[in-house]
């Protein structure tokens, strides 16, 4: 993926969110218009689909942001420390054992000289939603990208105990009661799109403000 400019980053994120937003609206209409015998099936489908938009857009935003930074290619020494830390997982993810001297030497040499290198990581390696975007995973991604990790603190229970719990039950073919389905869908419909948009705005603001760079003393 190529992201050549700030405008292109903004366009890619907004285009991706636009079609997801339309599906939110379509699902809301379908649920409200569904007959009683259709509603439970539609709610199950809707919860699974809304979760997919949560995971899908978060991952898309993270990948686009990293591709944008790869295009800029600042030196690690000029970037916030989290980006050099991010490169460690990319560089030492295969055939590496901290117990073996060659690996110890390799990581020592990289830490000693790597700050002079330009930012360049494989975005598909370092960003992992684990197909289960629970609070701990979203916290990890925020930390990797140097974004505000406090934004979803008050949503931890909602993410893990509502969104993930119900979605996973549906994905595993478990029966979920009609009342729980309805309550979960209503909460997702009310809160999830705003949460998705919040993450997108964090990325755009960080890119616009060049928050990925170290600030002068």
Structural commentary:
The protein is built from 8 helices and no strands. By secondary structure, it is an all-alpha fold. The chain has one domain. Helix 1 (6-33) runs antiparallel to helix 2 and helix 1 (6-33) runs antiparallel to helix 8.
Give structural attributes.
single chain, mainly alpha, 0% strand, 70% helix, elongated
Produce the secondary structure layout.
Layout: H1 6-33, H2 36-72, H3 81-91, H4 101-113, H5 123-126, H6 135-144, H7 156-171, H8 178-209
Helix pairs in contact: 1-2, 1-8, 2-7, 2-8
H-E order = HHHHHHHH
Radius of gyration: 20 Å
Helix content: 55-70%
- Alpha-carbon distance between the two ends: 34 Å
Number of beta-strand segments? 0
Major β-sheet annotation: none
Number of discrete helical segments: 8
Briefly note the structural class of the backbone. mainly alpha
Beta content comes to under 5%
Q: In one word, what is the shape?
A: elongated
Mean pLDDT: 92
The number of domains is 1
Low-pLDDT runs: none
Summarize the entry for a quick read:
This protein is mainly alpha-helical and 217 residues long. It contains 8 helices and no strands. Helix content is 70%, strand content 0%.
């Amino acid at each position: 993926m190529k992201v050549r400019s700030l405008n292109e980053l903004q366009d890619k994120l907004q285009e991706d969110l636009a079609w997801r937003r339309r599906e939110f609206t379509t699902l809301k209409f379908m649920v409200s218009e569904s007959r009683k015998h259709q509603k439970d099936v539609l709610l199950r489908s809707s919860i699974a689909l809304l979760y997919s938009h949560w995971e899908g857009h978060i991952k898309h935003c993270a990948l686009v942001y990293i591709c944008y930074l790869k295009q800029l290619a600042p030196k690690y020494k000029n970037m916030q420390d989290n980006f050099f830390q991010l490169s460690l997982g990319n560089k030492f993810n295969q055939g590496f054992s901290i117990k073996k001297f060659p690996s110890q030497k390799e990581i020592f040499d990289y830490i000693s000289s790597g700050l002079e290198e330009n930012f360049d990581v494989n975005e598909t390696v370092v960003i992992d939603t684990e197909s289960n975007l629970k609070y701990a995973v979203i916290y990890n991604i925020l930390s990797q990208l140097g974004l505000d990790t406090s934004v979803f603190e008050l949503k931890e229970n909602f993410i893990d105990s509502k969104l993930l719990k119900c979605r996973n039950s549906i994905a595993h073919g478990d029966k979920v009661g009609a009342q729980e389905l309805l309550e979960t869908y209503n909460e997702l419909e009310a809160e999830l799109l705003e949460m998705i948009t919040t993450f997108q705005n964090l990325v755009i603001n960080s890119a616009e403000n060049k928050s990925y760079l170290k600030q002068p003393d």
